[in-house]
Specification:
mainly alpha, about 70% helix, two-stranded antiparallel sheet, globular, about 5% strand, 11 helices
């Protein structure tokens, strides 16, 4: 195998690495998130919570599709930008208290960091900036929902989302339309993995999905990294067992290993060059790995 063959497979090593970093980051943030009281739902065991999540997701998706349909790109950029800013606010609300005491200084630091991160993403959306801040964003979201939802509600959510993802990519294809609209705006809500060293997301973008052409980078949706991580955090918070390295128990470790296995399956199909629904293999592998880990501790 020559050097060019080795380089070709580097992106397929980077994507699992990003997933593991997001999962470890979300685990590390789970305690600060709990300490800050950043729960998305009041009752973690309620099966109504995943339905509320899905309803909000469908409403937001429909809203963005309408904006794309009528060419309201500026509105889309502002809506997504505001969403990113608010997510950073919640993420830094968990991190800043670790370094700054309560009071005005804490609030000022939290808002300043959120503004700085959001401005950086929009003013200089190069692939490494998007990926680095995307990891922080994804870890923050995963930790918040992971501590807010018990394992059974999360599993219900992941199953519904996997089915929805498959339908929206392979049947209705509206997720492809949404992804293309986001890519056209160079909106930083996905991970970008270059195929070549001199690639620039700012200059080259990605290209149209599903056109059969060769693109200069792979992309994977932020949700594909977030949703498996939610179960990893939930398993760590709501199931028992010894915490290895003081960070994760066997159910969480099983979910992590399962998510990586699911990602490997996904990457096999990505090689075809066609858009793929990421959540069916990712969520399926994560759920299976969780149950294996949970069984090993006697479903405690």
């Amino acid at each position: 195998m020559d050097t060019s063959d080795v380089k070709k497979y580097i992106p397929f090593l980077v994507m699992p690495a990003i997933l593991v970093i997001v999962e470890l980051g979300s685990l590390a943030l789970s305690l600060p998130v709990q300490a800050a009281g950043l729960a998305a739902f009041q009752d973690p065991q309620s099966l109504a919570d995943p339905l509320i999540f899905i309803a909000i997701l469908l409403g937001f998706t429909a809203f963005l599709l309408v904006l794309i349909r009528y060419g309201k790109k500026n509105v889309i950029a502002w809506v997504i930008g505001l969403s990113i800013f608010l997510t950073f606010v919640y993420t830094f609300a968990a991190i800043v208290p670790l370094f700054v005491g309560p009071g005005d200084a804490e609030i000022a630091a939290m808002l300043a960091l959120a503004v700085a991160a959001t401005v950086l993403l929009y003013k200089y959306p190069e692939w490494y900036v998007i990926d680095a801040l995307g990891i922080l964003l994804a870890a923050g979201v995963a930790s918040i929902f992971g501590v807010s939802l018990g394992t059974i509600p999360v599993i219900v959510l992941l199953v519904i989302l996997a089915v929805y993802d498959a339908i929206s990519v392979y049947k209705t294809k509206h997720m492809i339309t949404l992804a293309e609209g986001v890519i056209d705006l160079k909106t930083p809500i996905l991970f970008v993995i270059p195929k070549k060293r001199d690639y620039s997301f700012i200059k080259e973008g990605i290209g149209k999905l599903g056109d059969g052409g060769e693109r200069s980078a792979f992309i994977i949706g932020m949700g594909d990294m977030i949703m498996p991580s939610v179960l990893v955090v939930s398993a760590n918070v709501f199931t028992g067992g010894v915490k290895y390295f003081g960070l994760f128990n066997l159910p969480a470790l099983g979910a992590m290993i399962g998510s990586i296995a699911g990602l490997v399956v996904l990457l096999h199909f990505v090689m075809s060059g066609r858009p793929q629904a990421g959540l069916p293999p990712l969520n399926g592998g994560t759920i299976l790995g969780f149950f294996i880990g949970w069984a090993l501790i006697g479903f405690a």
